[in-house]
Design a protein that fits this description.
About 60% of the residues lie in helices and about 5% in strands. Strands 1-2 form a two-stranded antiparallel ribbon. It has one domain: EF-hand (Recoverin, domain 1). By secondary structure, it is mostly helical. The protein is built from 9 helices and 2 strands.
């Protein structure tokens, strides 16, 4: 069977979202991951905290719209991957569901309003989201496309688009959650 980088990336995403670690996604998992992301925003930044929570609610709603949840309102890995392909990662929905998370993260973390994240800011963000600093540090190098020592908002958006939409196994965005490998891509 051919290596399917999209399926591998969506599997990693499923496992990341599975806050109950039970192999099933529920609305509660999306509420919890929304809180994990909201906690990255600075104290008092309610606009971005709410934007992050709302984005994960929209994501769950899109899974429901795709028919992914079963009668118990749970989503297994095969259903998640199918819904990601049929609903979440299509351009019309992607910009409405996924990109608001990225935009709110950038606004929350770019406290000096430079339009970019330093390596320290990037690594701290992903560490708060449960990603090992050595993994996010290696990703930072690849995602800093112009070698400026920062990841601009545009570079971050491009990386997200590559992670979710690209089938190119060499795309830098595949490093978003760590180094991709044929047997276990991380990003």
């Amino acid at each position: 069977m051919a290596y399917d980088s999209t399926e591998q990336k969506f599997t990693i995403l499923f496992n990341w979202f599975d806050q109950g670690h039970d192999g099933r996604l529920t609305r509660g998992d999306f509420d919890q991951i929304g809180e994990v992301f909201a906690a990255v925003a600075p104290e008092g930044d309610e606009d971005n905290k709410n934007a992050l929570r709302n984005a994960f609610t929209r994501w769950w709603d899109a899974l429901v719209e795709a028919g992914a949840p079963d009668a118990r309102q749970e989503v297994g890995l095969p259903e998640f991957i199918a819904a990601m392909r049929s609903h979440i990662s299509i351009p019309a929905n992607f910009g409405h569901i996924v990109m608001p998370i990225i935009d709110a993260l950038m606004r929350a973390l770019d406290t000096d309003n430079t339009g970019a994240l330093t390596a320290d800011e990037y690594v701290r963000m992903y560490e708060a989201l449960g990603i090992d600093p050595s993994t996010s540090g290696a990703a930072f190098v690849r995602l800093d496309r112009n070698g400026s020592g920062t990841i601009t908002h545009d570079e971050f958006r491009t990386a997200i688009e590559e992670f979710y939409l690209s089938t190119d196994t060499n795309a830098p965005g595949n490093w978003l959650l760590g180094p991709p490998t044929p047997s276990s891509p991380q990003g």
